[in-house]
Structure formats: C-alpha cells, structure tokens
Amino acid sequence: MSAHTANDRELFDLLDIGVIVAGSHDRRIRRVNTRARQLLGRAANELIGSPWERFVHPAEREARIESCRLSVATERTCPQHVVMRAIRPDGSCVHCLVSTVLVEDPQDGEPLTFSHLQDVSPLMVARTQLDLIVENSNVWLFLLDRTGRILAATGGPAVPDAAKRLHRARASTVFEAFPENRRRHSNLRRALGGERVQATIKAYGRLYDLQMAPIRGADSRVTSVAVVGNDVTEREKAQAELRRRAAEQTVVADLAQRAIDGVDTATLWAQAARALADHLDADLVEGVRLARGDDDGDEGGLVLARAEVKRPAGESGRGAPSPGEHTRNRSERAPRPAILSVPVGRPDRPTAMIIVHRTRGTPDEARFTAQETQFVRTVGTILASAATRFEMEAELRYRSTHDGLTGLANRTALLDRLQHALNRSQRDQHRIGVLFLDLNGFKTINDRFGHRAGDELLGRVAGLLRHAVRPGDTVSRLAGDEFAIVCEDITDIDVLRVMADRVLQEISRPSQVTGCPVTVTASIGLALSGPTDHDAEELLHGADLAMYTAKQADTGRAVVFDPSMHDRS
Predict the structure, then answer these.
(1) CA of residue 346 relative to chain centroid, distance
(2) SS3 229
(3) 342 vs 68, residue with greater confidence
(4) Stretch 404-413: mean pLDDT
(5) DSSP label of 28
(6) Which segment, 155-164, 171-180, 321-330, is predicted with the most confidence on average?
(7) CA quadruple 321, 323, 324, 327: dihedral sign
(8) For residue 305, what is the domain's CATH number?
C-alpha cells in the first residue's frame, strides 16, 4: 500500500464516499479516508489498527464478522451489499450502506476487504416513518378485479367479522362475502363501470370513508378497482362535537348580546329556555325563582319561563317507546326523564333555578353529559349577570332621581316632572301648582340634638308630606330642610291654599326626636302656573320667592307668589 503515489492518496481522501480498507483475517483497519472518518465521527488514529466490528452496532457485529469470513472463504470478488448501523462516540447511530469486495494487497499479496460506506440514514428514517404510518393508520387498501374478488389488500377494519369476510372475498367476491350490503354493491358497480366513487358508509358501529378508483387497461376498459378505505368515526365525532360547540357558542353569544341590548328579564328568560330546549332536545325547560327567606313578601317558586316541546302522537322523547308499545306490554314502564337542575346566581345564595327534563329510550341515553351541564351553567351565568346588571341599573336610576335620606324625589326629578306637567297643561288648559316649603327652626334642632336627630326629623316630615298630599302629587326634598310639592289639575289658587293649610297642620303636630318632644313649623310659598308659564325653573323660583316672603312676614304661614316679589328680592 506504501507504493501508492501521492496522487492516489489525494484521490483516496477526496472521494465523497467513505472507504475503509481492512485485513480479511484480523479485520483490523489498515486505511480509512476522510469521508469515512466523518461518517464514523472518529479520528484516523482511533480507527487504524482497530477491528472493524468495534464500530458496528452490537446487534450487528456477529453478522459483520460472519460476512467477512464468508467473503474470505469463498474468495468473493463481487461486491456484497448490506445496511448496518455504525456507532459514533456520542452513542448515536448512522445507517450505512456497506459494499464490500475482496481485493489483494499488491505489495505482499494479502487479501484485504475494500468497503465503500454510504450514509443512508435519511432513507432509513423515511422508510421507518412510512412503516409506522401504515401500521398505525386507519387506512386500508384493496385491489378488486372485475368480478369483485380481492386481488391484494393491506390493512382493514379492526373488526373480526369484517376481517373474516374480507379474507373470504379473496377466494370468492365481495358480493358473496357481503350479500346484505346491496347499497354498497351499487357503489362498486359504478366504479367497475368507470366512475370514480366516494361514499361514507356505516358498518359494525363505525363510519368509513371509501374512495373507489377504476383502473383501465391498454384497451381503456376497466380491469380492476382500487379501493381506499379510511375509518373516519373519530373524525366525524370530532366534527359533530365542533358543530355542537359552535351551536352552543352561538346561543351564548346571542343571549349575551340580547342582555347587553337591554332586553327585559322576562323576554331574556323565555329566549334562554327555548334555546336550551332546542339545543338539548329536551322535553321541558323551566326557569323558577327561588324563595329568599330574608325578603318579606318575596314569592318563591314563581315560574320565570317555560319551554315545552310538543312531541308528535306516539312519540315520548327521542328513542322512547310509543304508548302502543306500552299497551302491548303492560309490564314495561314509561321511561323516566333525566332531570338537570342548575342554580342561577351566587353559589351561596342562588336567586333562581334552571330545570331541564329530557326523556329518551334508556336512562343512559337521557343522561346529561358534562359538556351539556356546563352549557346550561354558562346560560345561567349570563342570566345571573343580566339580572345583576338590571338591578344595578335600576338602583342607579333610582338614586339619580331620589333623595338618599327620605326616599322622596330629588330636585332633578321634581323639575323633570314639573316640566312635563307644564307641557301637558299647554295642551289641556290645566294649571299646575307648586308649594315650596322650608322648616322653621330646623338649624336649632340640628345643633341642639345632633345631625342624627335632624335626619330623623327630616324623615318624619317626608312621611307627613306624603300623607298630606293627593295621590297624584309629587313630593320632593330639594336640599337641607327645603321641600317642594307639584300639584297638577289645580283650578284656582284657593285649592292650593287649602293644600298648604293641610300641610302646615300636619307638620305642626308634636313629635318625638331622639326621645325628646319637638314641635316644628314651616313657611310655604305658593305659585300657580298661567297661560304663559312654560319654564319649570321659573315656576319653582316663584314659589321659592313666596316662601322667603312668608318666612320674613311670619313663620308658620303660606304666601302666594306675585310678580312684585321679583323687584323686592
């Protein structure tokens, strides 16, 4: 080997394929080129002098040694090809196609093994992956001749009975092996007629997607049919689940949007009950308000909504037996419905309950799944959130128009009602009266007994004013100890004076404040609208001026407004 020229050595190292020269008897490596060192991941000094099998996977070493012995024994000069795994220093393997030929050393005549190494790892990985796909997929392939006999097959439905029949179809035909499947026979005959056919069939409790492709011979006639079958049961289940969830999300989104749009509670509950009945295929869906023990007069058990499915005669729930069947076998009882109850509101204090009834053939069929239960809970959450929002909005509206201490209308609400009354009075020629009232000596009571006593007195006065006015009149607390009353349909000022006298009389009754006897009086200003009065602020201001005039003249009296008071003020 030493007689090789420098050019030979250079070409040996430049080869893009690995080359290893080893002794045929001791199998020790004599020479190795650069590409072989790269494949094995080792330096030349580590390889030269070492036995070939040291760098082969342990499971394949004996086969490698035996191959070398056989080559020497038979003096084989034709290349021997084998795929083996070489071990790298890091423990990884590289698949190599090894082509070995027996040559003679030109220097001493010793037989040597001359091996070419080619990295086929990508091919082996691809082959392994393809094998795994075929072995673990639900796809099965058939080739049928024109009579329907199976010529070749791989895979198949994982059903013993189906496997037996398919094996029988190799000796006979699929028409004889599956005589009851006439509908599927028509699909195969269409394919034998030259038509590509796609069909989804149900067999042995599974769903299969079949693709049938006609194969034509040299004369363009159909000689055979290739059938590709795929078990799509899980796919169809997943798609059905996706459709069901999409429908649930649509229901939830629609209810949420209606709640945002401000649909009233009764309408929202009715829509929710109908949506639940349709989606769950339920016989009956009810929304029931629960009794609250701490709320006097709260009516528990009130049905908020009810959606009932009217079944056709003879049908009592999907899969349930008809009444005629019960007549024929009286020992059988009607199927009992599954009942799902979901609370609505806070977990520790629900305000309502959604109750769903569903009847089917068997209790297992009627039972509600975890997903269906969660769907009803989601709907209940929307209803509870909507109810909370409605309550908060109602509370905000009430607070924006009522006095927090007395519960009377506040100044904003009074002016709004007064303006509406004035607008109506222009159409029906009725007059509007306003009483502006201020308590006398309230500051003294407040300073002497404290603010709590003052608040108690204001609450008592509010109650007296409600009792003193007519049912349609509006009583308002404007600020501090100032109150106002709007009276519609007043014929003349004398009617307003009578009302003012009644108010003064009610207020002046002795009362108890923080356990002490107290008597208060009030000054009242009266204002009556005329044909040209259109502004609520102006009319209220007129009554206010009259009240100040009454307060200056003498406490505990009522004074009617006249325009000259503007000049005096």
Answers:
(1) 21
(2) strand
(3) 342
(4) 92
(5) B
(6) 171-180
(7) positive
(8) 3.30.450.40
Evaluate whether residue 289 is within a structural domain.
yes
Cα separation, 97 vs 39, in Å, equals: 12
Give catalytic residues, as residue numbers. Answer: 481
Distance of CA 100 to the CA centre of its chain: 64
Count of the separate structural domains present in the chain: 4
The pLDDT value recorded for residue 274 is 92
Q: How confident is the model at residue 327 (pLDDT cuts 50, 70, 90)?
A: very low
Amino acid identity of residue 344, one-letter, is V
Most confident of the ranges 99-103, 121-125, 467-471: 467-471
Q: Which residues pair with 208 in a beta bridge?
A: 201, 231
Q: Are residues 283 and 376 in the same domain?
A: yes
The answer to whether residue 132 is domain-embedded is no
User: What is the widest separation between alpha-carbon atoms in the chain?
Assistant: 148
Residue numbers of the domain that contains 214: 137-231
What is the CATH number for 538? 3.30.70.270
C-alpha 186/C-alpha 172 separation (Å) is 18
Same domain, 103 and 164: no
Q: Which of 168, 196, 231 is the last residue of a domain?
A: 231
| Whether pLDDT at 288 is above 70 | yes
- pLDDT tens digits for range 238-272: 888 888 888 888 988 998 888 888 778 888 999 99
Residue ranges in 193-264 assigned as alpha helix (H):
233-260
The reply to whether 362 and 410 lie within a common domain is no
Do 115 and 151 share a domain, yes or no?
no
Distance CA 226, CA 98 (A): 38
What percent of the residues of the chain are helix, what percent strand, and what percent coil, each to the nearest 5?
45, 30, 30
In a domain, 238, yes or no: no
Q: Alpha carbon of 480 to those of 326, 343, 403, 459: distances in Å?
A: 77, 46, 11, 12
Q: Which amino acid is at 272?
A: A
User: What does the pLDDT read at residue 66?
Assistant: 74
User: Which residues, 6 or more positions from 260, have their beta carbon under 8 angstroms from its beta carbon?
Assistant: none
Q: How many CB atoms lie within 10 A of CB 392?
A: 10
By three-state DSSP, how is residue 345 classified? Answer: strand
> How far is Cα 282 from Cα 311, in angstroms, rounded to an integer?
11
- Residue 414 and residue 550 in one domain: yes
Question: Same structural domain for residues 412 and 553?
Answer: yes
Please tell me the distance from the alpha carbon of residue 462 to that of residue 450, in angstroms, as a whole number.
19
Distant-in-sequence contacts of 444-447, Cβ < 8 A, 24+ apart: 445/513, 445/518, 445/520
Q: List, in order, residues 6 or more apart from 375 with CB less than 8 Å away.
A: 248, 251, 252, 279, 280
Indicate if 197 and 308 belong to the same structural domain.
no
Q: Does residue 323 carry a pLDDT above 60?
A: no
Residue 112 lies in a domain: yes
